[in-house]
Amino acid sequence: MKNDAPNQGDLRKLGELIDDIEVAMLTTRAADNSLVSRPLETLKLDANGELIFFTAANSHKVAELTDDHEVNLAYAHPGEHRYVSVRGRARMDRDADTINELWSPAQKVFFPDGKDDPNLMVLRVQVRDASYWEAGNFVERALDLARGMISDAPGDIGEHGHLEG
Q1: Which residues on adjacent β-strands are paired with residue 37?
Q2: Which of 86, 105, 130, 147 is 20 to 30 Å from 49 at the Cα level?
Q3: The model's pTM
Q4: 90-149 pLDDT, tens digit each
Q5: pLDDT tens, residue by residue, 48-107
């Protein structure tokens, strides 16, 4: 993921938390009001606080986002016990500059006609806010949990925080 978040503040922290997590689960609301999630590769967090993805114009998510622009993105790095939930508002465009900047040969799997594929769209999610959980090193957390079980003091089970978009 390309991280162009500002050098300080909540967006920078968000960029650091998700930088090495390649795929997010995007949740939208279906026509029957149920929630639907699917994986998307995060391509960029820009300086304006937008997470950027490529998507197919003919996908169900595009139809769902036409009716309701509110989304959630879930990121998980189980190996580092790090989890992030991002709330935001989605919009779509076909900005050629963005496509040229973020295009890679691997995208041809999804868009066989390359950058000019008529099905290729840019999906942008303006970050409203995010919550994160970092439990850190498994051994340290296990020791903290054990200490908490044998003492009256609560154990340290990691860090939880809230970030503004």
Answers
A1: 27
A2: 105
A3: 0.84
A4: 999 999 999 999 999 999 999 999 999 999 999 999 999 999 999 865 555 455 545 555
A5: 999 999 999 999 999 899 888 999 999 999 999 999 999 999 999 999 999 999 999 999
Structure tokens at 24: 């997010």
Buried b / exposed e over 80-115, threshold 16 CB at 10 Å, is ebbbbbbbbbbebeeeeebbeebbeeebeeebeeee
Q: Is 65 helix (H, G, I), strand (E, B) or coil?
A: helix
Nearest Cα neighbor of 1 from 52, 37, 71, 48 is 52
**E strands of the chain, at which residues?**
2-3, 23-29, 35-41, 44-45, 50-56, 70-77, 82-93, 120-134, 159-164
Rg of the chain, C-alpha, whole Å: 18
> What is the distance between the alpha carbons of residues 136 and 157, in angstroms, rounded to a whole number?
9
Rounded distance between C-alpha atoms, residue 12 and residue 57, angstroms: 30
Q: Name the amino acid, one letter, at 143.
A: L
